[in-house]
Amino acid sequence: MAPQPQPSAPPAGCDADPDRATPAHRRRAWLITAMIVTFMVVNYADKSVLGLAAVPVMAELHLSNSTYGLISSSFFLLFSLSGLLVGFFSSRLSSRVLLFAMALLWAVAQLPVLVVATVPTLVAGRVLLGAAEGPAASMSMHALYKWFPPERRGLPSALQIGGAALGTLLAAPAVTWLIIAFGWRSAFLALAVTSAVWSLVWWKVGHDGPYSDSRRPRPAAAAPPVRHRLPYRRLLFTGTVLGSISSAFGASWALSLSQAWLPAYLRNQLGMTPQTAATTISAISAFSLVLLLTVSPFVDALKVRGLSSRWSSGVLQGIAVCAAGVAMAAFPFVDATGPRLLLVAVAFGCTAVAIPLHYMTTAEVVPTGQRGAVFGIVAATGTLPGLIAPSLTGHLIDAAATPTAGYTTAFLLTAGVMLLAGAFAVVAIRPERDARRLGLAAESLARQKAPASATDRATSAHPERPC
Questions:
Q1: Looking at residue 341, what is its pLDDT?
Q2: Were 80 and a residue from 34, 135, 189, 380 both cysteine, which residue would form a disulfide, CB within 3.0 to 4.6 Å?
């Protein structure tokens, strides 16, 4: 039998066995959470920088809308593939190594445009950045789940995805200030330095938690866990995984459109100054962050009260995508500034709710040892719109009679995709049913019937602890 992969060594004072959690262990869990939130902040700042610099970049390099859209889409050329491949390697490499390598590559990816600013160097930098960021959301969530049990993942998940909203919230004014004060290249340099610094700090403090799929000593009184390993075909074709991918697909279409085209739309179509456009984007991100920090703990509370995952997290993520789709279809036809901006916020902000929830529902129907790989597959397929939406939008704008008509067509197409994706998620996501069909419910029951052990006593004595 091949040797089993081992997680990175736990830090001093943090017992690798969740049955003997300590205050130091709990503090470490939240330190890791803070690092991963920062990881996502940097991740989304890196993604957003081209969109925020779109107007001066297009003017300096004389780019058409189609060419700019192609550059934006190039970010996703290897995004999904790298997410898929790294997901399968996640069981062999520690999260410490994976996240360190990703962040270091982010720094390198920002450098080509500093040497010479041309379409090829922009494309090269975005392709490398996309390849390095493809696994970021799924692998950082996988790393986070190693520190928290299933019933206490709602808030950490919301914080992790909240890092994405926080990244845009902070990046929009900061990057815009750099662009105005020092030129658009300065924003790329600042983000390269930030990514490098994060990677060095993570190398020092980042370690795998006790909920990884590793072999560790267990109390003699505890029943050995039932370990499943199922064919990926069975896992991927459950309604829950397909529905989770669908909600991610709809959310990703809107997200990629906002990163590539929303800053340009606000400036060129709504006549906003760079500072006003940055403030508007920050406000939308703040709205997303409030939703994340409100909805995910609410989902945890519903589950504690006994509501099924289908209704507490499955239906909710589908409805969020549908509501955003309705707003997306409506705002191009609203002239009043206040209502239009409110609809823009709902269209581009509500989808954030679906991101942590689709990981939570997927995790409920996947064995722990296969979770990283399935997360990679879900992320790879769910984010495919990034390869299509920015480039397609550029072509629609150039082909239309006016840019306004082109934007309207793009937004209506996005709305249709979101409504279909959200509706499918509502119907298909049924974690409890799919877990029973896969035999995972039996595993959970076997653990519940295990004799009282140190695990049970520790859990009852420390219900607030993360493990």
A1: 93
A2: 380
